[in-house]
Design goal:
This protein has about 190 residues and is α/β, with parallel strands linked by helices. It has one domain: 3-Layer(aba) Sandwich (Beta-carbonic Anhydrase, Chain A), CATH 3.40.1050.10. The protein is built from 9 helices and 5 strands; from the N terminus they run ααβαβαβαααααββ. It has a 5-stranded mixed beta sheet. A hairpin with a 6-residue loop joins β4 and β5.
Length: about 190
Amino acid sequence: MEGNKRWVSGHLQHPDRDPDRRQLVAQTQEPFGAVLSCIDSRVPPELLFDTGLGDLYVMRTGGQAVGPVVTGSVEYGPMTSGTPLVVVLGHQRCGAVKAAYESLRGGKPLPGNLQAITKALQPAYKQAVREGGTDPVETMTRAQIKLTANKLRSNQDLAPLVRKGALAVVGAYYSLDTGAVEVLTGAPS
């Protein structure tokens, strides 16, 4: 979050982004966090948290949709090297969530494998419909973040790490307008 404050203020440190760091991490890595973010080109985790090479595991899917391969990728750091933090990072004006929302609302499937994203986001859509609100796509985005973080936090392999305090799984929302990250759920105490 300190790196995000630097991103918002424009006082970036650009840490761990030089040939010396590249040499240091060439043989092994020990990232301090894993980020499951959207594919959106405006949401690069390494930049918006002002981190560098070897600092984060980053997985990106449309609308933070998860399945076995993505879940396994998220589990990799915590289960193999003790990475203590997973952040599920959604964002403002998410095109994937908007497309899924419109598909589900209109009953018109998206083409090709885009329909798999719609299917994965269906629980968030249902929650958003129940909750209402002035902007249903934003409501669905926030629901998707929380549902995904909760699903990861309680899965059979990560839950024991969370219970013993070795892992925090945080749901967070990125504002495209301000650059700020807001923690929604799972903040470590």
